[in-house]
Amino acid sequence: MPYSLHVAHLYGDLMNTYGDIGNILVLNYYAKKINVNLTSEVVSLDQTFDPTKFDLALFGGGQDYEQVIVSKDIQSKKAALTSFIEDDGPVLAICGGYQLLGQYYIGANGQRIEGISALPHYTKSQDHNRFIGDIDIKNEETGEVYVGFENHNGVTYLGAGERPLGKVLTGHGNNGQDQTEGAIYKNTFCSYFHGPILAGNHNLAKRILLLALKRKYPQVDFSQAEATLAQID
């Protein structure tokens, strides 16, 4: 039986400033290794997000200008995206996408950019400062260390029910204060890592891919697929 996954690339024509499409390429690479057909589709302005159509969603980053545009449009997708997240749909949200899944983001000019409150975090801005540079974090559940590059003015504070993607070892993370970076809620993974994140953190890519497969095919034993992926860099 052939297995397949369909990925929603949310606002991939607008929120792809940091090469976030690379995350789809990485997932596709590993999918092919275990004979899974992975396809993707951009869901953008004035388009409907159907939570029953997709098996995984990626939401990339953008500048404040793009975020204001997306903020207005994404309100029409709020119920569907929230439903997908609450139903354990795997989501990877980076930078601006991370911020817009939360309550709100205060832009560099002080403008409040509304999120969809699918997750309880919120983001403020720094005065005349950005967090820029290499960053290493450790996921305390798996013990895995993730490496990347951060470049953001926003300072994000997690809410009830969220746990960090990792504890900061070097760098700044969500806010430079509480040693957290990113967020995990159910099967939603958020981060400020640019680059894209999955290219340099293969264990996270494999984890998200397997979560999507197991959710779509709950009766299938994917232990052999896991073993195969474990042997691939």
At a glance:
This protein is α/β, with parallel strands linked by helices and 233 residues long.
What labels describe this entry?
233 residues, alpha/beta, 4-stranded antiparallel beta sheet, 14 strands
Question: Can you walk me through this structure?
Answer:
By secondary structure, the chain is of the alpha/beta class. It contains seven helices and 14 strands. The chain has helices at residues 21-33, 64-74, 78-86, 96-101, 197-200, 202-216, 223-230; strands at residues 3-10, 36-43, 56-59, 91-94, 104-106, 112-114, 122-125, 131-138, 145-152, 154-157, 166-170, 180-181, 183-185, 188-191. Strands 2-1-3-4-14-13 form a six-stranded mixed sheet. A four-stranded antiparallel sheet has the order 9-8-11-12, with no helix packed on it. A hairpin with a 5-residue loop joins strand 5 (104-106) and strand 6 (112-114). Helix 1 packs across helix 6. The chain is globular. The chain starts with a strand and ends with a helix.
